Amino acid sequence: MKLTLRKIDKENYDEVIGLSVSNNQIGFIESTKACLEEAREFNFWRPIAIYEEENIIGLAMYGLFEDEGIDGRVWFDRFMIDEKYQGKGYGKRSFNLILEKIHSEYDYDEIFLSIYDNNTNAIKMYEDRGFRFNGELDINGEKVMVINMKK
Questions:
Q1: Residue 15 CB neighbour total at 10 angstroms
Q2: With 49 labelled, which of 63, 76, 94, 131 sits at a CA distance of 20 to 30 A?
Q3: Which helix (H) or strand (E) holds 136?
Q4: Closest listed residue to residue 53, CA positions, set 13, 100, 19, 85
Q5: Active-site positions?
Q6: What are the pLDDT digits (tens) for 81-102?
Q7: What pLDDT does 109 receive?
Q8: How far apart are CA 136 and CA 101, in angstroms?
Q9: CA 5 to mean position of chain CA atoms
Q10: Residue 111 — φ and ψ, nearest 5°?
Q11: What percent of the chain has pLDDT over 90?
Q12: SS3 of 102, please?
């Protein structure tokens, strides 16, 4: 199973909009449509579609906030695997692929994300990858995690 990351354009927009999470995950992430609308409004966001061969399986969004910190912060802001592809190992594999893409695209060692503290499955995956809570809360009250890709 080969995973690829693709830009979202008019060719795959409807596929992306069709992605959804399970009912117990709905409060953890915005709809794919809301993500794409936000990316259209704020050009620092980079939404990408996750594919396994020719099947779309998920969405991610990341970007550089230049007004945070000394040199800005790179945020891995949205990540979801469609409910019918969950539990099959796609999450971990695509998460690692996206992290590498973000790191190579921006060349920042630290990558940030935020998460609700009751999203325990995602927290475990992020911690297993090396993310740690840094004691901050984002503007929505989510806990901030960071990874140093240099280590």
A1: 16
A2: 131
A3: strand 132-137
A4: 85
A5: 126
A6: 888 988 888 988 999 999 999 9
A7: 92
A8: 25
A9: 12
A10: -125, 130
A11: 54
A12: helix
Query: What Å distances lie between residue 134 and 24, 59, 66, CA to CA?
Result: 26, 25, 19
Please count the CA atoms within 13 angstroms of the CA of 22 that sit on its side-chain side: 7
Q: Locate tokens 């891995």: which residue? A: 76
| Sheet strands side by side (includes 55-65) | 3-7, 45-52, 55-65, 73-81, 110-115, 143-148, 132-137
Averaged pLDDT score across all residues of the chain: 88
Q: How confident is the model at residue 26 (pLDDT cuts 50, 70, 90)?
A: low
- Spatial contact of 131 and 145, defined as CB atoms under 8 Å apart: yes
- b/e for 107-133, b at 16 or more Cβ within 10 A? ebeebbbbbeeebeebbeebeeeebee
Token readout for 113 is 């994300």
Residue 23 has pLDDT above 80, yes or no: no
Segments of 29-126 assigned E as strands:
45-52, 55-65, 73-81, 110-115
